[in-house]
Design brief:
Layout: H1 6-30, H2 42-100, H3 110-123, H4 126-135, H5 139-145, H6 152-162, E1 168-169, E2 176-177, E3 182-184, E4 190-192, H7 193-205, E5 213-214, E6 217-218, H8 230-243, E7 269-271, E8 278-281, E9 288-291
Antiparallel strand pairs: 1-2, 3-4, 5-6, 7-8, 8-9
Helix pairs in contact: 1-2, 2-3, 7-8
């Protein structure tokens, strides 16, 4: 059975709603009753409420028409768009390679930087798409509804039905979790958010793990910053400031011994915000000699 274009159905619904709105306006023109503006009769209030609902329905139908139009265009042009993207990426890479042969050109082209950024963003979804294809579509579903000739509305329905079942594997704990609960690192590994957060918090306590990396690629905390509490983020930033400092000064109080950042120091004294003590420092900025 051939699939009807939903846009045609939406056109009919939109036309019907428009006729109803025009009918309401025509009925208003026929009314010549006398009433105060702040006290209209019930039938006028009913017309107003009905008109409001019709306008909401009309806007909804128009939005659906746009959404289906976009989905239809994406489905029909997907192959051409991908081929164009691959060609453009290859062209920029070829240009960068040519520039690299010139000894005076040490920096990558701006076009390559932009393409790399876009490519990285696209790659973030690659593991999701691969997992969708590999783990959610059964042989039966592929034999019945899959294929290039399937209508785009059916493809969308398949994806939406299987999306809650989609899982990707965490590179650390091995658990299968939803893609939205994972982070794909620069190196390509996929971490579930609890594992990545736990690793970063351990790095904030163990200098040997700082800066945190995976396959020698730095891990940027901003990709999971929203999962941190204010206290956890403050602790991480404090550790980052301490571990990257080249001239460290610590509170001389044995009960405290907190790192004192440079803004809290003078040439002779360092003020500890944790315990309010002042530590006298000598010519060696990383050693504390006395507590005031």
């Amino acid at each position: 059975m051939a699939c009807l274009d939903p846009c045609l159905q939406f056109d009919d619904e939109s036309f019907a709603l428009q006729l109803q709105l025009e009918e309401i306006e025509a009925q208003r023109q026929l009314q010549s009753g006398k009433w105060t503006e702040d006290s209209p009769p019930d039938f006028v209030l009913a017309f107003d409420d009905f008109e409001t609902e019709l306008k909401k329905a009309f806007l909804l139908v128009e939005d659906l028409k746009i959404a289906h139009s976009i989905a239809k265009a994406v489905a029909s042009d997907a192959v051409a768009i991908e081929e164009s993207r691959v060609e453009e990426t290859q062209s920029v890479q070829d240009r960068d390679f040519a520039l690299s042969l010139n000894e005076d050109e040490n920096l990558p082209s701006q076009d390559l930087l932009e393409t790399s950024r876009v490519g990285a963003e696209s790659a973030d979804w690659d593991h999701v798409l691969r997992a969708t294809e590999a783990s959610t579509f059964s042989d039966q579903s592929c034999n019945t509804v899959a294929g290039p000739s399937i209508h785009y509305t059916h493809r969308q329905k398949i994806v939406l039905e299987h999306l809650p079942q989609l899982r990707v594997e965490c590179s650390v704990c091995g658990d299968a979790v939803h893609p939205h609960a994972t982070v794909r690192l620069v190196c390509g590994d996929i971490y579930c958010k609890p594992c990545l957060k736990s690793f970063l918090l351990r790095a904030a306590k163990d200098e040997s793990l700082f800066p945190p990396t995976c396959h020698r690629q730095a891990i940027d905390i901003t990709i999971i910053e929203a999962s941190f509490t204010v206290e956890e983020l403050t602790a991480y930033r404090s550790a980052e400031l301490e571990f990257t400092s080249t001239d460290r000064v610590y509170c001389a109080s044995p009960e405290c011994a907190k790192f004192i950042p440079r803004p809290q120091r003078t040439a002779d004294c360092a003020s500890c915000e944790a315990c309010r003590a002042e530590t006298c420092v000598d010519a060696v900025p990383s050693s504390a000699t006395d507590v005031v």
